[in-house]
Amino acid sequence: TRFEASQSFHHAPFLAIEAQTSHHDLLALKWPAPPRNILCIRKDDDDQVHSALLEYITHIKRDYPETNLIFEPYLAKQLHKIFDFPIYTVSEDDSNVPYHEKADLTTTLGGDGTILHAASLFATATSVPPMLSFSMGTLGFLGEWKFKDYKRAFREVYVSGHPSPLPERIGNEVTDGGSGPRVTTDASAWANIKGKSMGASRSSRVLMRNRLRIGIFDSDGNRLPHEPPFAHANNKCEDIFALNEVLLHRGALPHLAHITILIGTPPHQRILTTAIADGFLVSTPTGSTAYSLSSGGCIVHPLVSSLLLTPICPRSLSFRPVVLPANTPVTLRIEAENRGKEIEVSVDGVRRKEGLKAGMEVRVVGEEVRTPGAPGARDWMGGVPSIVRSGGAADGEDHWVGGLNGLLKFNYPFGEDG
Amino acid sequence: TRFEASQSFHHAPFLAIEAQTSHHDLLALKWPAPPRNILCIRKDDDDQVHSALLEYITHIKRDYPETNLIFEPYLAKQLHKIFDFPIYTVSEDDSNVPYHEKADLTTTLGGDGTILHAASLFATATSVPPMLSFSMGTLGFLGEWKFKDYKRAFREVYVSGHPSPLPERIGNEVTDGGSGPRVTTDASAWANIKGKSMGASRSSRVLMRNRLRIGIFDSDGNRLPHEPPFAHANNKCEDIFALNEVLLHRGALPHLAHITILIGTPPHQRILTTAIADGFLVSTPTGSTAYSLSSGGCIVHPLVSSLLLTPICPRSLSFRPVVLPANTPVTLRIEAENRGKEIEVSVDGVRRKEGLKAGMEVRVVGEEVRTPGAPGARDWMGGVPSIVRSGGAADGEDHWVGGLNGLLKFNYPFGEDG
Amino acid sequence: TRFEASQSFHHAPFLAIEAQTSHHDLLALKWPAPPRNILCIRKDDDDQVHSALLEYITHIKRDYPETNLIFEPYLAKQLHKIFDFPIYTVSEDDSNVPYHEKADLTTTLGGDGTILHAASLFATATSVPPMLSFSMGTLGFLGEWKFKDYKRAFREVYVSGHPSPLPERIGNEVTDGGSGPRVTTDASAWANIKGKSMGASRSSRVLMRNRLRIGIFDSDGNRLPHEPPFAHANNKCEDIFALNEVLLHRGALPHLAHITILIGTPPHQRILTTAIADGFLVSTPTGSTAYSLSSGGCIVHPLVSSLLLTPICPRSLSFRPVVLPANTPVTLRIEAENRGKEIEVSVDGVRRKEGLKAGMEVRVVGEEVRTPGAPGARDWMGGVPSIVRSGGAADGEDHWVGGLNGLLKFNYPFGEDG
Amino acid sequence: TRFEASQSFHHAPFLAIEAQTSHHDLLALKWPAPPRNILCIRKDDDDQVHSALLEYITHIKRDYPETNLIFEPYLAKQLHKIFDFPIYTVSEDDSNVPYHEKADLTTTLGGDGTILHAASLFATATSVPPMLSFSMGTLGFLGEWKFKDYKRAFREVYVSGHPSPLPERIGNEVTDGGSGPRVTTDASAWANIKGKSMGASRSSRVLMRNRLRIGIFDSDGNRLPHEPPFAHANNKCEDIFALNEVLLHRGALPHLAHITILIGTPPHQRILTTAIADGFLVSTPTGSTAYSLSSGGCIVHPLVSSLLLTPICPRSLSFRPVVLPANTPVTLRIEAENRGKEIEVSVDGVRRKEGLKAGMEVRVVGEEVRTPGAPGARDWMGGVPSIVRSGGAADGEDHWVGGLNGLLKFNYPFGEDG
Ligand SMILES: NC(=O)C1=CN([C@@H]2O[C@H](COP(=O)(O)OP(=O)(O)OC[C@H]3O[C@@H](n4cnc5c(N)ncnc54)[C@H](O)[C@@H]3O)[C@@H](O)[C@H]2O)C=CC1
Ligand SMILES: NC(=O)C1=CN([C@@H]2O[C@H](COP(=O)(O)OP(=O)(O)OC[C@H]3O[C@@H](n4cnc5c(N)ncnc54)[C@H](O)[C@@H]3O)[C@@H](O)[C@H]2O)C=CC1
Ligand SMILES: NC(=O)C1=CN([C@@H]2O[C@H](COP(=O)(O)OP(=O)(O)OC[C@H]3O[C@@H](n4cnc5c(N)ncnc54)[C@H](O)[C@@H]3O)[C@@H](O)[C@H]2O)C=CC1
Ligand SMILES: NC(=O)C1=CN([C@@H]2O[C@H](COP(=O)(O)OP(=O)(O)OC[C@H]3O[C@@H](n4cnc5c(N)ncnc54)[C@H](O)[C@@H]3O)[C@@H](O)[C@H]2O)C=CC1
Questions:
Q1: How many domains does chain D have?
Q2: Could you give the angle at the alpha carbon of C215 between the alpha carbons of C300 and C128, nearest 5°?
């Protein structure tokens, strides 16, 4: 059968993301060998997105025949009926999903929500493969490409870091061995790309988005399990990582939640304050343009290594959003005053089925994306490597300013024509 | 039996609340005859409050023996086991509660929540009896008195508007007829108060809090029923009145709600905007220091005849709270984009069990508390007449400024001792 | 000479602005007789505006030959060299400008600043003639018309309240008497309008903008004079009226100002708070979309009878904008802590040359625009009657919602095309 | 003469500020030898502060006789009349003030303003000596000690990093050589401290506050000089460093300023937006609790390596404070629309006498306080090393949380007793 389990292949982790000089805050993507295993995530329940996916799959398999395409199980089932090349997925038992051991590259088709979902599949991984995101209609804020540019985008990413101009392709001699994906560590695989040479390849630029590490604890200090899509079946009590934020919220009952915020780790832990509020957010800089923004938080550039504390509708005149160093341990403790009802906890827009009771805690700390090695030797563990748009006004590191202005309508001028 | 139904008595509505000159924005309470039927509401599940209630009841019945004390049914059941004077309540069938036809005065023991609950019992009444509120511990914002002042407070209210200094009382000749409360329209009843004369009586001051009139409609424009405590069994589709606000909210699912706000009535209705947000509030000025404040709304004095529109966590950089004339009809329409889930609706902190689906509408307009009669002849229909604290720094109309500073810690100074 | 002093004519005040039913919050303009004396104010130093003014003048004098055109002295001097009909102005001594005794109608060409300037010429008048405003480029927020619509606009205003459809005009028999404007109280003057009949006339709609009454006092409680354009030479210590706001500000030195805000009049005056801030604003609802908005104030509909207190950069976490009833007396007192420097005071964007020293006070109260007469008999003294745009989406009372969305970009949607 | 010029002595820069494990974000102060030259800055025009200074000087010279005390020239002149030991200052020509070449330690007596002034004396230095601050009355936010603790504080700082417990002092054998300060590189000088041994010395903790590097440019791109106290006579066009912020402001005229904000350096520079506002702030995290806070900025921990962009009263609904990486070059350009008037520029509360005209630019970038050396070898150039309070609840890194709660009244609870 072409519908194969995932055990049979390995991924070739991108080893060399390096700082670049001209755009010093973004990194350059350098594959040691072409990416082989491409995880494809798409938005659900959207016909336009689905058609786009089919077109995308067809293109990739034709022009990059050595790649293997991986999908979430429910989607793999659907697709292997349509295509006659192998469709990969992870183990059928979808509560145990080691995507990060398989995928070299993730591509998403949808919006910001799809990117968040894709990231949630790597919620227990400290090393996440690069992510290339496409959106159908209007762009989102998380650095996606327009779907219409998918051919150029994929090619740029595929050859990123390739040492020299690509030779003309000779023919379509590459075939799928039929026996599951094979690890290619040989950079000569780049020679097999269909189509004209693109001349000297430029490196794709990568924004390392740091995440939040999150643990949930009962009132005795024992870890509580996380739920899918974040948690794996056999490892439910690990910390998980969030790309936007963790949210505590009063939920459906319109009464104030009481949440105490502590900073540091015992014995240096100290109470910052008790929020009496609708809820409380701990966000990444990436999440600063999501829920935190709506709650009145300021906009923090994704390269500021920090955590945001933003209350939601605090019953106070004197609460102000706070930005802390990313490495600050933050504890959110559910107070006894919560009228016996549970406080709901959500990560990146996904609510945990079980709420939290008095005494329980959410413990959070920001991921550090720059390991303390010598500059050349850093290996940039941690973070979600997001491939930013290239070309045009949105090029390179400017994409963030472009997003503020074009999408968020930052400081939009008054007046008739706007 | 001493536990009697409410049918047997009538109330003597306070007819003459008049504008006062020195405190021109508050009204003076003038009973044509002493108030007879006192509705007593207390906070639940609080032993301290319960003891206070017993002390309060004992005092009132001893010093003001001609008054009748009315309670909510569940409480009346408890109390008539304790006391040997008649305990009144409304019809056992608590879904049909015509408190406003019975009570001359409402007194509350608890906090702001208890006041809101008391007001909800008059949610279909356009004429609400005056409300005298006591709090146990720290004061709330809605103008309550400290419980320790209850004797002075009750007396001041009881004699408010009495034409002349009260005579010394002769003896304890007043007895309860035993046959249920009797309507006293005779001002001479004032002579029966126990204790020394208080000298020339001063009028209690009343802040008329205007409310919101709220109707809920299905997508065909038909009225939907309200739920208790607001709605009566036989009249569920009437509009109800809120003292603080009506809230639409995403509820437990952490996804944005889409709510369109329209202003005016057809054919002059016009879309103000579509809020994509956690929720949306329409508040009274009274409610401006409640949920609206937490959501970033400004503080509006309760005498500014207005409505506040305040979004909750809007996904927008350019939403700003808006204050409209009280008589502006505002419609909140649930949009189709709400992902098939229901939007929750709450009034004054009480959530309606059934949420709202796409196409449904909440229609709101502020209550006008000043009828357009000639100044002397105005009868101040509408609004909840709240008896404000007297004495000391909190006297008269200053109570609002006092509340801002003392309770809300408005513009609290920086510094060590602050 | 055609350049005449203003003494020779009188104005026919619009007597009957009446509430209208369909747009119940706007009033209908009803002239007892056609307006005769038109005060024309234009923005300075703008060639496009100047050309427009010439075109406008020519049109008015040709089609409404019985009107008299009045200008500010400096402009009148320029214009009477160009035109061969009489150009009126007020007394040369421009520090004594009783425009409100002369003008029946004010028209402005420019932006919001021009409207503010026109209003400042009536800063000591309690009865202000209606104002019709045109803007050249993009519209402003204060309800102006596009200049391209000036013919329709002027005609609509001119005939507003005329009892019946206007007859066809017979010929151009009307001439200027040459002897200065003559008071026409005769409604038959309407018959003299050039051009086709417009059919049944509709009334122009008027938004009465309430203003702030402002007095400045030294530390002994003596009134201090106001300066031009607000104050008249012979009457400098009167209160003046502001359309947007009065501003106290630290001025050029970057140190905090200390300003105490008191509410009420002695002996019921009470300290609200001491603002330690860059400055402090007391605004009208009209001004809520001007400086107050920039300082974080909420948006208040011009028909909410209120005052806004908005601090500018307060050194406090717990300051929140406050909305008070229009009739609240507010005192701003300069504290001794201001390091010996003066606090600057500005009205509607015009700074008073002399600043305020410690102990000085600005006393403010909102204008009440609805006199307490019986509904039919109200004469709507007070306020600046602004003629709102008619036609199209901006029609009638909707102009405010239109302004929020079209000009202020209220709740502007996120996304690429915006 | 005892009033000596500064040329004769050198300073022994603290070489080893090291990261500490238990309070990992603060550094440990380790002198290679005791600090010799102490710069003493005090608040002006405050008798209480002056008396405290005299007491402080007397104590230091008695118990630490080998130290040299340095003052600003005007103060040195006063003091050398009072004391009979040498009083040092910098060159009389106070426009050339190389304090950073002289002082080993700065101590300040006053408030936050005094600390800012002390920092301004090092505005062109990239290596600033540690700063120990005392306040008289209520504490400020910048980490000062209470003056009453000055003996303990000074001793703790003086011995910080001393390898072993200090021996009992033998006698008062240490005398001032009388010939001007002598460089002691010998750690044995620690033995000379008067008083009992303090047992094992603990290191003082240092918070490195990163600053802003600021240059001002004319419209041709030429540097403009800075003014005292920041700039030196012979080096006026250097960049200067600010501890709180640089401010552009409309100044005294109440009209909007137009300032364009650009990010990056050419050719990667990009327009972020044009602020139409009262002014614009670029702040350090330290400055986030100063002016930026008043303008609505969020609170950023001083260890988040970042820059804050905060508009002051922007005429926009959609401006939101922005936090950028410290190393982001930010340019503020004065636009032509500023009505011909100058825009005022201030640094840390000191206004530059000359304002900026259209086309001029302020260029800003954050100081990087962590040099990229290997962890052990880092030398922490840059930043102002602020010695944080020790002892009690304010100990160590908690001082920041303590300041938020105790001084700023962060999230101050509602209710009567506060
Ligand atoms: N009131 C609010 O603003 C709420 C915001 N959210 C946010 O939505 C996220 C989940 O997204 P969806 O599943 O798509 O939910 P959704 O369908 O409710 O949409 C959330 C919106 O936020 C945008 N968004 C998500 N992440 C963003 C980012 N980092 N920067 C800028 N925009 C971003 C999306 O494009 C979408 O427009 C959560 O992580 C939370 O941050 C969730 C609930 C309420
Ligand atoms: N995030 C927030 O600020 C939320 C506020 N609320 C408010 O709570 C009200 C219901 O009150 P409870 O049943 O006691 O709920 P609750 O127990 O959740 O307490 C609400 C708090 O608001 C205070 N409060 C209520 N009305 C007030 C007013 N008009 N002015 C100033 N303070 C006021 C109460 O004293 C109490 O401290 C709702 O009408 C809503 O306004 C409800 C949910 C969330
Ligand atoms: N930071 C700010 O927002 C500042 C605002 N102002 C405002 O400017 C007014 C003076 O106007 P100009 O002489 O034209 O000064 P200006 O040339 O500085 O422009 C002020 C801007 O505010 C607009 N504006 C004025 N009144 C308005 C209103 N009621 N609603 C909405 N927009 C309004 C004008 O159209 C213009 O865009 C003052 O009364 C004050 O309210 C003045 C200084 C600073
Ligand atoms: N509206 C406002 O909030 C204004 C604030 N300022 C601030 O004042 C600073 C100059 O200080 P002074 O000469 O003492 O002027 P000042 O006498 O006007 O006082 C400024 C206040 O800010 C406090 N402060 C200064 N730096 C601080 C910081 N980093 N964190 C917390 N609080 C701080 C001071 O303790 C003082 O209470 C400027 O750098 C600027 O940040 C200056 C003008 C207006």
A1: 2
A2: 60
Is residue A197 domain-shared with residue A334, that is, in the same domain?
A: no
User: Is D209 within 8 Å of D243 (Cβ atoms)?
Assistant: yes
My answer on whether A325 and A386 are in the same domain is: no
HEC profile of B141-162: CCCCEEHHHHHHHHHHHHCCCC
pLDDT, one tens digit per residue, over B379-414 is: 566 899 999 988 765 455 578 998 999 899 999 988
Q: Which residue has the higher pLDDT, C1 or C13?
A: C13
Judged against a pLDDT cut of 70, whether residue D169 lies above it is answered with no
Residues of chain B with pLDDT under 50: 1-16, 19-23, 166-185, 196-200, 372-378, 394, 418
Q: Are residues C10 and C27 part of one domain? A: yes
Same-domain pairing of D155 and D224: no
If DSSP codes are grouped into helix, strand and coil, which group holds residue A152? Answer: helix
Residues D221 and D202 in one domain: no
Largest CA distance in chain A: 72
B416 located within any domain: no
Give the span between the Cα atoms of C300 and C210, in whole angstroms: 12
Chain C residues with CB within 8 Å of chain D CB: 247, 249, 251-255, 277-278, 291, 293-296, 312-318, 344, 346, 349-351, 408-410, 412
Ligand 3 atom closest to the CA of C114, numbered from 1:
14
Q: How many angstroms does the Cα of residue C290 sit away from the middle of ligand 3?
A: 5
D308 to each of A245, C202, D294, D326, how far by Cα in Å?
A: 22, 55, 13, 9
Residue D371, domain member (yes or no): no
CATH at residue D345: 2.60.200.30
**Between C316, C317, C416, which is nearest A138 by CB?**
C416
Residue ranges making up the domain that contains A271: 211-366
Chain C residue whose CA is closest to B395: C268
Residue closest to D385 by CA, chosen among D398, D374, D370: D370
Q: Is the distance from the beta carbon of residue B4 to the nearest atom of ligand 1 less than 6 Å?
A: no
The CATH number of whichever domain residue A17 belongs to comes to 3.40.50.10330
Predicted complex ipTM: 0.92
Interface of chain C against chain A, CB under 8 Å?
138-139, 316-320, 406-409, 412-418
Q: pLDDT, tens digit, for every residue of C165-224?
A: 544 433 333 333 333 333 444 556 677 666 545 444 568 888 999 999 999 999 999 999
Ligand 1 proximity of A289 Cβ (cutoff 6 Å): yes
Q: For chain D, list the contacting chains (3+ Cβ pairs, <8 Å).
A: A, B, C
Ligand 4: residue of D45, D135, D244, D295 to mutate (most ligand atoms within 8 A of CB) is: D244
Best of D273, D307, D318, D323 to mutate (most A CBs within 10 Å, chain A)? D323
Question: Which of B44, B112, B141 most suits a substitution to test ligand 2, by most atoms within 8 Å of the C-beta?
Answer: B112
Q: Are residues B192 and B257 in the same domain?
A: no
pLDDT for the residue numbered A171: 34
CA–CA gap between residue C125 and residue C119 (Å, rounded): 10
* B330-334 and B344-347 beta bridge pairing: unpaired
What is the mean pLDDT of the segment spanning C43-60?
96
The low-confidence residues of chain A, meaning pLDDT below 70, are 1-24, 92-97, 163-189, 191-202, 233, 235-236, 370-381, 392-397, 416-418
What pLDDT, on the 0 to 100 scale, is given for residue A184?
45
